[in-house]
Design goal:
globular; alpha+beta; 5-stranded mixed sheet; 12 strands; 4-stranded antiparallel sheet
Length: 361
């Protein structure tokens, strides 16, 4: 029988807000909200001082302002956050090459075969957190467990600046009392459906047979069955190939179709610049729209040859916009431009256009 894996989930504490407080001593100890002010803005991050007022990420900025009128709003500076994230990633790689980033501020590490700290996962996590503090002046929390699902849940257990381990022998004991909403994918709607079945905890969920869960929730029912038993076979996957890149923005006020062509141009430029960070080539142009009633529409087009310039990307996105056939008086609150269907460069056959130069300026 193979030995259980040793997985660490490292999660930075209030990352964006902590970077702002680190770089501006005047913000330390104060309720900091990383967000642009305005009716359409949402919270990117909130310091722990702000969280005491109920402010959370993805919350409308106006609501955050109402919850804490004294909150200090700071516009996000993603270039700084990315620079710090690179420092943190370098620390992870000192301990294992098996690092799977989830975002700028969190990652999975497989340290099963790592010789660092004598191969003891809890010591590796402790060392990583110390290095992060010494290198960046920031704190991180960590969860250590036999799989990704359990490690991610555990990393939230001793926040901020702590760590928690779930040994293989104590998985069932750890999971049984957990509220079912701690299972990934169980949002408010699913939580309500489970509550109607008398399911409030993971222990309750474990009492339902696989067949019943599948009959009720399809393939997600099978996922619930596995998670209730602490089963997660997903490997840590470093260097995952890029599948899609996109940029989107919310308008200051609702606009009709044709009223945001300039923004589509800007978003196409942002998306094109981002493709310069990968050697893979995107084939499909995607346009995303959200109406004032929060209805989401997507339109896509795959040309015979991949877009070779920002102008091609822009023109296709604008053409997709013209294909939307909702009533003329429909108003929109958000637009996004993206590329998907990425393939490795050597897989791309550019029919009759093989040697056209790639301009990524």
């Amino acid at each position: 029988m193979s030995q259980p894996r040793k997985i660490i989930h490292v999660d930075m504490d209030a990352f964006y807000a902590s970077v702002e407080q680190r770089d501006d001593p005047g913000l330390r100890g104060k309720p900091v909200v990383v967000a642009w002010k305005g009716a359409r803005s949402v919270v990117c991050a909130a310091s722990y001082e702000a969280r005491k007022f109920g402010i959370r990420s993805a919350m409308p900025a106006l609501r955050a302002e109402r919850l804490c009128p004294d909150a200090i709003f700071v516009p996000p500076d993603f270039s700084r956050y990315k620079a710090v994230s690179r420092q943190i990633r370098a620390i992870f790689l000192q301990h294992t090459p098996l690092v799977e980033p989830l975002s700028l501020d969190e990652a999975y590490l497989d340290v099963t075969a790592s010789p660092s700290c004598g191969g003891i996962a809890t010591e590796i996590a402790r060392r990583i957190r110390t290095q992060i503090r010494e290198t960046t002046g920031l704190t991180a929390s960590a969860g250590i467990a036999p799989n990704k699902f359990l490690a991610k849940v555990a990393s939230d257990w001793r926040k901020p600046d702590g760590q928690f381990v779930v040994p293989p022998a104590k998985v069932e004991q750890f999971l049984t009392p957990l509220p079912v909403q701690r299972v990934p994918g169980v949002g408010k709607v699913m939580q309500g459906r489970l509550a109607a079945l008398g399911i409030a905890t993971v222990g309750d969920l474990r009492g339902l047979p696989l067949e019943q869960l599948q009959a009720l929730f399809g393939s997600f029912g099978a996922s619930l069955y596995r998670r209730a038993r602490g089963i997660d076979e997903r490997p840590v996957e470093p260097n995952q190939p890029v599948q899609s890149i996109s940029s989107e923005d919310t308008f200051a006020e609702d606009l009709p179709l044709g009223g945001f062509d300039e923004l589509i141009t800007q978003l196409a430029e942002r998306t094109w610049r981002a493709t310069g960070r990968t050697e893979r080539i995107g084939h499909t142009v995607v346009l995303k729209l959200k109406t004032a009633q929060f209805r989401i529409l997507t339109r896509s087009f795959t040309p015979d040859t991949p877009p070779a310039s920002v102008e091609e990307l822009r023109d296709i996105a604008l053409a997709l916009c013209r294909r939307v056939q909702l009533p003329a008086d429909t108003l929109y609150r958000l637009v996004g431009v993206g590329l998907s269907g990425f393939r490795d460069r050597e897989e791309v056959v550019r029919q009759g256009d093989l040697f056209r130069p790639q301009h990524r300026e």
